[in-house]
Every structure is written in structure tokens, then in C-alpha cells.
Amino acid sequence: MKVTNGALVAPFLLVLGLVAGAPALAQPAASDEAILQRASLVAEGDRVALYQDGVSVPSAFLYVAEEACRKLEALTGRKLDTATLGPKIRIYVSRAVAVSHVWRGYDHPRDPRGIVFLNLRAYEGAMRGGGNATYVHELAHLYMRPRIWKASTRPFSAPAGKNSFAWRLGGSRSVVTFPP
């Protein structure tokens, strides 16, 4: 069996490329607190304050987020609990966010705040108007109190559509299309 130099070099180059690229891929995500400190205010509306961190976010996203909040309020029949979460929902769009989430993630009920962290993919999908309603999913967490969430509401298992958000309240099904 004859082994050529190319057969030996190719695996070496592949491993070298993976090792050299690893630091870029493995950048640690910033903590929520660090994002809050670094971010700058882009715009404020009636329900939402929009912030950017390490990315340029046009104020047009404020309209999209405000309309999503109006639709969620109509769909759920609930207003934002401003006494617990604060006067406005603060949305932070950041390069440092790996996975979009609400403040403290799954521990949000222990330290509730009206804060949503969006990664670039979720933000860009919302602005393109198709295929990504992650921002609506995260906002919905803020309109559902954990005790009520478990007892009376649950999302449908079947997708409502490419740009839709389906919800079951009691026995009825509601579907809202996002963005507006």
C-alpha cells in the first residue's frame, strides 16, 4: 500500500483548521449583567425600551416589538404586570447572547424582571418578517405568570404556520401572525 504526501497532509490541515478556529467559535457569552451595563438605549415606546450591545439596531424594531406586545395582550387577555416586572419591557439585542432568553432564564420566577435578551439570529429573523418568532416567544414568558401558565395555558405542539404563534387558552385555540 502506497501512502502519498497529500493523504498525510489533508488530515493535518483539517485538524489545524479546527484548532485554529476553536477560539473564535468558543467565545464565552457575556453575563446578563454585563450586557445590561454595556448596552445603549436605542428607542422607547409605550410598552418597550430597546437597547443594543455590540450591534447596530434600528429603532424600527421598536414598532415590531410594541405590536407584538399589543397582540399578546389581546391574545392572553392580560396586561404586563408592571408592579412586578417594571414599567416597560426592556429588550436587549446583543452579539454576546448565544440563546435568546428572559432575565435569569428558567430562574426568572425567582427574580422576575421585564427583560428580554435576543441574539442576532432572532432579531434579524424578526426584522426580515419571516420564519423567526423567537422574540414573541420570549415576550410571551413575561405575560404568563408561572402559576397560571401550568394550570390553564399551553402552546400547541403543532406549528401554527411559518410566522404564527399559536396558543391555547382554556379550550379555545388562538393564532396570531407576527410580525404585524
Helical fraction: 40-55%
Assembly type of the chains comes to: single chain
Biggest sheet details: 5 strands, mixed
Low-confidence stretches: 8-28, 147-163, 167-172
- CATH domain class of the domain at 27-150: Alpha Beta
- Total beta-strand segments: 8
Q: Report how far the terminal alpha carbons are from each other.
A: 65 Å
SSE series? HHEEHHEEEHHHEEE
Nearest-angstrom radius of gyration? Answer: 21 Å
What is the fold's blueprint, element by element?
Elements lengths: L4 H21 L6 H7 L1 E5 L3 E6 L6 H17 L5 H4 L3 E6 L6 E2 L12 E4 L1 H9 L5 H10 L2 H7 E2 L9 E6 L2 E6 L3
Parallel strand pairs: 2-3, 3-5
Antiparallel strand pairs: 1-2, 4-5, 6-7, 7-8
Helix pairs in contact: 3-6
Describe the structure.
The structure is a single chain. The protein is an alpha/beta fold. The protein has a domain of about 120 residues: Zincin-like, CATH 3.30.2010.30. Helices cover about 40% and strands about 20% of the residues. It is built from seven helices and eight strands, in the order ααββααβββαααβββ. The strands form two sheets. A five-stranded mixed sheet has the order 1-2-3-5-4, sandwiched between helices. A three-stranded antiparallel sheet has the order 6-7-8. Strand 7 and strand 8 form a beta hairpin. Helix 3 packs across helix 6. About 25% of the residues have low confidence.
What keywords describe this structure?
180 residues, alpha/beta, globular, Zincin-like, 5-stranded mixed β-sheet, 3-stranded antiparallel β-sheet, single chain, 7 helices
Question: How do you describe this structure in short?
Answer:
This protein is 42% helix and 21% strand. The protein is an alpha/beta fold and 180 residues long.
